[in-house]
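chain below, 80 aa
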Amino acid sequence: MKRIEIVSLDRVGLIGEISNVIRRLNGDIISHTANVVTHGNTPLSHFRADVRFENASDDAALLRRLHRLKNVRQVKISDV
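prediction:
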């Protein structure tokens, strides 16, 4: 199981896009949280999910795909 943490500028559709990336890599989101905080005048989204993958996940591919999402600032993947 992996824990994925993403910090991004908040915007409509962000969680759906993250979920689609995980789904395309045969991942199943076991639990998740999403919070928005304002830093100055900028709303930042902090998304955290525990994900189980059908096959051994390719962390580099997952990291690359999540970083490609619009306005993503930081991605962290760790084993749980």
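The chain has one domain: 2-79. DSSP finds two helices and four strands in the chain.
thats it, cya
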